[in-house]
Amino acid sequence: MKIGIYPGSFDPVTKGHLDIIRRSSKMVDVLIVAVLKNNSKSPLFSVEERVSMLKEVTKDISNVQIDSFSGLLVDYARKNNASIIVRGLRAVTDFEYELQMSQTNRIMDSDVDTIFLTTSLEYAYLSSSTVKEVAMYGGDVSKFVPEYVADKINDKIKTLNIS
Ligand code: PNS
């Protein structure tokens, strides 16, 4: 059984993330999409909200599970018998950070390999931060995130009263 982990902040999940989830889920028996807890970045959504949005937008993909984790990714991978870490690469600017992370992880646990999927061109520009910025200034984010997530972003911004 080949188990893969797609880790990230997912604050919130974008169409770019979903593209990586769909494609990588075909390469493994089970794909665990894992939201990092205790991230130093100040998030728009709580971990529970991010997990819940991910569950909703991936509910049609049968071998995808949504979870959250804290601590080292390699420890979480080992605990879940995962041998593959999936990451998306959008542009060359992602490369240095991703290389550093995958090499660090590999030194810590040589049984876990990171595979990189190049993001589909239509999403190559997309990031959760850009989506949040567009939304905060009242822009339409429905091109960037699933409709369900767009509604959640708009609700959140209304409750924060920052639009
Ligand atoms: O979506 P992000 O914020 O780019 O995801 C980063 C993530 C969650 C993959 C990374 O921060 C991570 O794996 N954190 C867990 C801590 C860890 O294992 N660090 C060592 C690798 S450098």
Order of helices and strands: EHEHEHEHEHH
Which ligands occur here? 4'-phosphopantetheine
Count of extended strands? 5
Compute the separation of the termini in Å: 47 Å
- Silhouette: globular
Number of helices: 6
Largest sheet: 5 strands, parallel
The average pLDDT score comes to 95
Strand portion = 15-25%
Percent helix, as a range, is: 40-55%
Low-confidence stretches: none
Which class best fits the helix and strand makeup?
Answer: alpha/beta
Strand arrangement across the biggest beta sheet: 3-2-1-4-5
Computed CA radius of gyration, to the nearest angstrom: 16 Å
Topology (SSEs and partners):
Blueprint: E1 3-8, H1 15-25, E2 30-36, H2 47-57, E3 64-69, H3 73-79, E4 84-89, H4 92-108, E5 113-118, H5 128-136, H6 147-160
Parallel strand pairs: 1-2, 1-4, 2-3, 4-5
The chain binds 4'-phosphopantetheine (PNS).
Mind explaining what this structure looks like?
- The structure is a single chain.
- This protein is an alpha/beta fold and 163 residues long.
- Helix content is 42%, strand content 19%.
- It contains six helices and five strands; from the N terminus they run βαβαβαβαβαα.
- A five-stranded parallel beta sheet has the order 3-2-1-4-5, sandwiched between helices.
- The chain binds 4'-phosphopantetheine.
- 4'-phosphopantetheine binds at residues 7-9, 36, 72-73, 101, 104-105.
